[in-house]
Amino acid sequence: MKLGEALTELKKTKARLTRLIQLRKDNVFAEKGKKSKLDPKELSQEIDMRIEEIRKLKIKIQRTNLLTQVADGKISLAEAIIKVGDLRSRISNLGSLFERKRDYLFRDKDEKEKVGQLDERRVEDEIQALETERSQLDNKIQVTNWTNELLD
Within a 10 A sphere around the Cβ of 144, how many other Cβ atoms? Predict the structure, then answer.
């Protein structure tokens, strides 16, 4: 199984688990003298099985991420995933630097005018460069996910 397939399977199994938990919740009470449509005990057993499946699949995915190099072979898949998260965080932080507060409408007339200490154009250029790097690294991760087998 390719790593990408395993990630898809993980997502589907998590969705199924969520539905099972809701089904159990919906069937835990029944009208006096009647039985629930679905047995909550059986649902609990199936929930436990799904949780175990998810745990095992996550461990295989983590092991594969640590031992697999991204398409260019410079860093591990695990490190690339962390780096993409770091890039997203930097982009978000830089993107919020120049958000204007609405309280300027209600500022005190004695309050001094404030001037930006960073060049907004340079920050925008940095954001663009980071977005390009993130996009390229994201693409390498996707290629790696769909060309490498899941390790046991």
Answer: 22
